[in-house]
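hey so i finally got around to running the thing on that chain from the lab meeting. sorry it took forever, my laptop kept dying and i had to restart like 3 times. anyway pasting the input first so we r on the same page abt which one it is
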Amino acid sequence: MALRGKVRIGYTPDGKPIDKNVSGDTPEALESAKQACKEHYLYGRQIPEDQLFYEYAENWYRLKKEPFISSASRSSYKSMFVKHLLPVFGLQHLTAIDANQLQAFLNEFAGASKSTITLCVGILKNIFSCAYAEGIIPRDPSVALVRPKSLTRNERRPLTSDETKRILHIARNHPDGLLLAVLYYTGVRRGEALGLKWGDFDFTEDQVHIQRDIDFTGPTAQEGTLKTAAADRYIPIPPELKELLLQKKGRVGEYVFQSGNGKPLSQATFKRIWCRLMLAADCVEWREKKPNTNRENDILKCIKPIITPHYFRHNYITLLYEAGVDPLIAMKIAGHSDYQTTASVYTHIRDEMLKKSTVNMDEVFRKREE
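ok and heres what got predicted. didnt touch it at all, straight out
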């Protein structure tokens, strides 16, 4: 049953009050309706009208999100809208979408990657909280959304000793091995590695300046901003990497890793290079081919690397930890924007080492008793 209330908006010339009747399904909805009525009659602001999801979402993205995110993030947002959100909610009115419908939709993402779930939840919460704040909807159905469990990924581990031996061998002997060497000896992010130019290296001071990133936007690649301000940094170059770099040193303005036309590697080209490197290092799983697969001999259809570029970043931070590098210094070298990020990685590494360590407890207590 709808709740009803009155809003006093003024008085007649003879002093009689002027009231407007409002209603709402809940106390919160009634309060929202009262506020919208006051905004309109007392302050001259138009009462917001219900909108279709796609209309409001488009305006929200254009004004409140697109100007503040990178090209790669824009591609992710548009993909989420086109593939998932608009087919389900696009032609529904905002007021018709309830919490149960949102939760049922979100539950379908169980087992997806953590980043995909985070993006989806973030978009929904932002859109509906803004619509609620503007008085378009009487309540925010996204407030109590429960995140489904994401795919468990095992990327937060260093390379094993066998993997390290194979990787370093490939880094020295494979035509594209320099990419592995850069990732292994600097711990940079994938986009940072692909954005390196020969002019970024100072072989006198033995350091490299990380100052740009490559974003994949569909089939193309382009220079983008670094992940954070802290990502703009200088990283020491060890002798092993310096030797490999000097063997292939190019012109100052050229990318270290580039396509034939001198532009950054496209996403497809990078993936194929990575597959070839991981195949040479015996770090792949063979895919099961489906009947009538197009381009069945394409390396991307045949194998799946079990190691991603991010493994090298975690491996690098592990090496810093094992070498006793202070977390504050590691934070600067890794390009983390806050100390807690580095500290949490250090803690994770320490805990993993403790799990793997073996202690003879009988010996521990025997020494005390003796």
